[in-house]
Amino acid sequence: MRATAYRLLTRRVAPWPWMRDGFPLWAADDDPAARPRPDDAPAEPVGEEFPPGRTSWQERARAQQPTRARADAPAPAAEPGRRGLAAIAAVAAGGAVAAVLALFLIGALDDGTTEIAQPEQLESTPGRVEPSRTGSIYAGAGKSVVQVRRNGGSGTGWVVDGDGTVVTNAHVVGGASEVRLVLDDGKPPVKADVSGTDPSSDLAVLRADPDDLDGLKPLPLADSDDVKVGDLAIAIGYPLGLQRSVTQGIVSGVGRSIRALNRFDIDEVIQTDAPINPGNSGGPLLDARGRVIGVNSQIATAGGGGGNVGIGFAVPSNTVREVVPVLKRGRSVVRPYLGVSTGASVTGGPGAVVREVQPDSPASRAGLRPGRSLNGTDGDIIVSVDGKPVRAPEDVARAVARREPGDRIPVTVLRDGDRVTLAVELDRRPEGP
Fold first, then answer.
1. Domain termination site, one of 114, 141, 163
2. Is the pLDDT of residue 24 over 70?
3. Tell me, what's the pLDDT at 63?
4. Is 72 a catalytic residue?
5. Residues 144, 195, 245, 281: which is the catalytic one?
6. CA atoms within 13 A on the CB side of 269
7. Bridge partners for 292 per DSSP
8. Enclosing domain of residue 60
9. Which pLDDT score is estimated for 302?
10. Between 219 and 100, whose confidence is greater?
11. Contact assessment for residue 203 and residue 238, using Cβ atoms and an 8 Å cutoff
12. Which in 23, 85, 261, 406 has the greatest CB count within 10 A?
């Protein structure tokens, strides 16, 4: 995994062994939204309350005195014409501060009562604000986004078609065969079966009764190849167990790679600075037209923390378009497999340095050699795959992904300064490397 730790956007559980720098943010029964807050506790009675409206000045004057003073026997009633002077004298005996309060709060009236002035309500400035672009998109797409709950933890999902199909992340589902979907309509959660998961893309497909999702419109998919850096990016989800939320940012990068659950790379990933946090996993990342451009999956963190620092990653919508139909049919996604781990050239030149060759893999059988030195020049540097030039490690995975298991492709490497072309027969990608 890269130097910056990638965190999966569910809640926290125990570390999985494949995570090098951190652990998935999945938590059971520690939803911050469900924790008792101080203001949830019943209030303790504090002092006495006066009924609204007109209140006897003697009662209010006694309320200004310390508790001991209230226990003393009341003073003899003064004559009506001297009640105001008696009040001021009584307050003065209690201290200068109480006297000032009394002057502001009470005034002697002929009938021996006090008129309490009620503050006027502040007026609001009339006029409505036109909805923002983000607000309009949220109004149209928000109801199609649901909360996915499993074992007390939560993630996010969204409706992709009208037959009850919901898309989320594979790490949100885990090994469950059934989850619960929470809708923002006040009704009890609805049951959804797990139709299939694909660890290599971190995608999962859920199937609910269409009647349970009545009124939730499918979200349209965009062509993620058309996404550009600087485009508007809008994330909708349930961060940290809160109710449905929306955040806005831009597309910060395209063509990124992140590590999947099975340690293979997910390619063509979209990077965004739209704030996404644990609980946003599986939620949609939308463009300015309200179309899904990616599925929020991971965040990069600094210093080992679990919060957002402005670097989030979404599995591209074109991967969703390929994987979801297969998982809906209950099948597994079949991918070609070369069996190498590569890194960038330390000299800054083109090509991908072979860092590791998996035993009994197509690369191993074809004779590819890993480098052991820091610069990797004692091993092979892949410069071409299937006739396509390799300028960076990501190009190797892209070229292999275009083929099928069983295809034979040429792989050209630099070995001891010479160009060597090897014939490699691709295999089916295993569940893990």
1. 114
2. no
3. 52
4. no
5. 281
6. 26
7. 221, 286
8. 55-114
9. 76
10. 219
11. no
12. 261
202 is catalytic: yes
- CA–CA dist 229, 270 (Å, integer): 9
In the block, residue with structure tokens 């995608």: 203
245 and 168 within one domain = yes
Amino acid at 349: G
Contacts of 66 (CB under 8 A, 6+ apart): 94
Q: How far is CA 330 from its chain centroid?
A: 28
Is residue 197 one of the residues assigned to a domain?
yes
| DSSP H or E stretch at residue 167 | strand 165-169
* Cα→Cα distances 19→9, 86, 171, 260, Å: 14, 78, 13, 10
Question: What pLDDT does residue 349 have?
Answer: 80
List the catalytic residue out of 144, 171, 245, 384: 171
Segment 171-191, tens digit of pLDDT = 999 999 999 999 987 789 999
Q: Which of 198, 201, 202, 380 is catalytic?
A: 202
- Taking Cα atoms as reference points, which of 288, 268, 284, 287 lies closest to residue 276? 284
* Residue 38 in domain: no
Question: 258, 124 in Cβ contact below 8 A?
Answer: no
Q: What is the mean pLDDT of residues 162-179?
A: 95
Looking at residues 393-409, what average pLDDT do you find?
A: 92
Check whether residue 108 and residue 62 sit in a common domain: yes
Q: Please give the sequence-ordered ranges of beta strands (E in DSSP) within 302-345, or none if there are none.
A: 312-316, 336-337, 340-344
Report which DSSP code applies to 34: G
Residue 171 known to be catalytic: yes
* Segment 85-129, tens digit of pLDDT: 444 444 444 454 444 433 333 333 345 556 677 778 888 888 888
